[in-house]
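As noted in the main text, all predictions were made from sequence alone. Below is one such record, for Lrp/AsnC ligand binding domain-containing protein.
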Amino acid sequence: MITAIVLVKTEVARITEVAEAIVGLEGVSEVYSITGDSDLVAMVRVRRHEELAEVIPGRLNKVPGVVHTETHIAFQAYSQHDLEATFSLGLPDAD
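Prediction:
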C-alpha cells in the first residue's frame, strides 16, 4: 500500500465543502482540517504509484475550491497500533 499525505490550500469560504468532496474520492481515506499554511490534509492510499496520478492531479486537484496542493509520499508507517501488533504474543493483558 502506498500512502501519500496531501496538504491542501482551499478558498477560505469553501473549506468544509472541499473537505467533503475530497473525502468522497476513491483512494482518499481521511481528510483533516488543520492549522498552519494549509487548510486540509488528505490521506491518499493506493496500491500502485500510477494510481497517485489518477487520484491527486486527476481528481483531487480538480475539486472546485482547491487552490494548491503539496504531496508527500510515506516511506514507512509507524503507529501505536502497528507496534502493538508487531510485539504482541497473543497473550491476554495482565491487568
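The chain has a mean pLDDT of 89. The CA atoms of residues 2 and 48 lie 7 Å apart. These features were considered when defining construct boundaries for the mutagenesis experiments described in Section 2.9.
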